[in-house]
Design goal:
This protein is of the alpha+beta class. The strands form 3 sheets. The protein has a 3-stranded antiparallel β-sheet with strand order 1-4-5. The protein has a two-stranded antiparallel ribbon with strand order 2-3. It is globular, with a radius of gyration of 18 Å. The termini are far apart.
């Protein structure tokens, strides 16, 4: 079992020794400054970390080629208290793809602060009475109706918007 630091951007995709992962926006306009915007679609690649592998450019072995870890991921990004971005692994299925339907659910929310982002994540991962006490993610992962999850997210987002 790999440690969280050995997983690509917190997505749960394992990295080989000496690799580093990058998330590249599918649409460059979805990057805000140097950070990816929550809700952005990205491709995730792993490349050799020259500082760790010390592969020389002169004669001998060539560096390993980049590896595509996933394409078209929708980002559920959360900021930690120290300003680091993390990407919860619960948003992925067993094949390291974003759970089908999650993009449509996330589209209902407009988090404005780190606390808002964490509230959305907690909502996605918590049991929901309207989904037979399954979380939104588990409901979608098991093939549950997308409309039910989207409707629940829209209702929750509207309630939170009224409260703020």
């Amino acid at each position: 079992e790999r440690t969280p630091g050995e997983r690509a951007l917190g997505f749960g995709a394992p990295l080989a020794a000496g690799q580093v992962a990058f998330a590249l926006p599918v649409d460059p306009s979805q990057a805000v400054g140097a950070a990816l915007a929550p809700g952005a679609r990205v491709d995730v690649i792993a490349v050799p970390n020259a500082l760790k592998t010390r592969v020389s450019s002169g004669g001998g072995a060539s560096p390993p080629a980049p590896v595509v870890l996933g394409q078209g991921y929708v980002i559920l990004a959360l900021r930690t208290a120290d300003g680091a971005w993390v990407y919860p692994a619960f948003q992925l299925d067993g094949r390291n793809r974003v759970v089908a339907g999650l993009a449509e659910v996330l589209d209902r929310f407009r988090p404005g602060t780190p606390d808002d982002e964490w509230m959305v994540a907690a909502f996605l991962a918590a049991p929901q009475p309207g989904l037979d006490d399954r979380s939104v993610v588990d409901h979608l992962r098991s093939g549950g109706a997308l409309d039910a999850a989207v409707d629940l997210a829209a209702e929750r987002a509207e309630r939170w918007a009224l409260a703020s």
